[in-house]
Write a structure and sequence with these properties.
Order of helices and strands: HHHHHHHHEEHEEHHH
Number of helices: 12
Number of domains: 2
Largest sheet: 2 strands, antiparallel
Helix content: 40-55%
Number of strands: 4
Strand order of the largest sheet: 1-2
Oligomer: single chain
Strand content: 5-15%
Shape: globular
Radius of gyration: 20 Å
Structural class: mainly alpha
Length: about 280
């Protein structure tokens, strides 16, 4: 768990305008929940609403406000609930400017709220595994916990956006799915947790994508590398050759960034030139 924090007075008031703290937790939830489950009957919405001091209907409406700001939603003809406030837009912009800080801050708020309500901290976010972390203390332990929070946020955001299915094969068993970075974690700090820097891929497609054995066009068609096209391996041919020029299944939210896809494709093409 994270170290305790002090929550500002009235940060989770049930009356008046929504506060920044309430909106941050609402938006973090929006990012990590399938679009079809953003309704007031969802038990997780009921639970979060109680925690932040709002009604399930109010929270569901706020999530629809965020959807109205999401280009991946509005570009397909779907509409969120109009009436997003200036503060809603500010929270949206803050997350897109610094995904890492906000992911950790939201988890800190959530854990502190649970403490303040006298509730046990759940390990549902994959960050409280004492068996793994028991040998670490102090600052090192906090660093490890924060890293796992960030990784878990990214995985949840990407998988929920792609409806829990590999965007190429359609595989839906979560044990076989990877939230794959388009531009690797180590190469772009600003976009490490940006869901638009992610694809939901099966383990084998993730490995191939990470090794630049295929890439994508700007309109999300699959481009195979020279290495894949010239492979003599029967399994590789069976799995990958039929992918050529197919469209991936696009996510409900956080469509792949064209800029980041272009960076991945340029590296793929460069490697192809050097290996011809």
């Amino acid at each position: 768990m994270l170290d305790p924090i002090t929550i500002p007075k009235n940060a989770f008031s049930s009356k008046g305008n929504w506060t920044s703290e309430q909106l941050k937790l609402a938006f973090a939830f929006y990012c990590q929940t399938p679009f079809g489950k953003l309704h007031s009957r969802n038990p997780r919405i009921i639970e979060l609403a109680k925690l932040i001091g709002r009604t399930p209907n109010a929270l569901a409406m706020k999530l629809s406000n965020f959807a109205s700001l999401d280009p991946s939603i509005t570009s397909t003809g779907r509409k969120g609930l109009r009436g997003a406030s200036a503060l809603d837009r500010k929270i949206w912009d803050e997350f897109h400017a610094d995904w890492e800080r906000l992911a950790v801050e939201c988890e800190q708020l959530r854990q502190q709220l649970l403490r303040d309500h006298g509730r046990k901290l759940e390990a549902s976010h994959g960050v409280d595994d004492d068996f793994v972390l028991g040998d670490y203390t102090g600052e090192t332990r906090q660093t490890i916990v924060q890293q796992r929070i960030k990784q878990d946020f990214f995985r949840r955001a990407v998988l929920s956006s792609y409806r829990g299915r590999c965007c190429i094969s359609g595989v839906s068993d979560p044990r076989l799915l990877i939230a794959s970075h388009i531009v690797p974690w180590r190469e772009d700090k600003a976009n490490r947790l940006n869901p638009s820097n992610g694809l939901c891929l099966s383990a084998i497609h993730d490995k191939a994508f990470d090794n630049h054995l295929f890439s994508l066009t700007d309109d999300a068609r699959i481009v195979l590398s020279k290495q894949i096209k010239s492979s003599k391996d029967a399994f590789v041919r069976q799995v990958f050759w039929s992918m050529e020029d197919r469209y991936i299944e696009l996510p409900e939210r956080f469509a792949p960034s064209r800029e980041l896809v272009a960076r991945h494709r340029e590296i793929t093409l460069a490697r192809t030139r050097y290996t011809l």
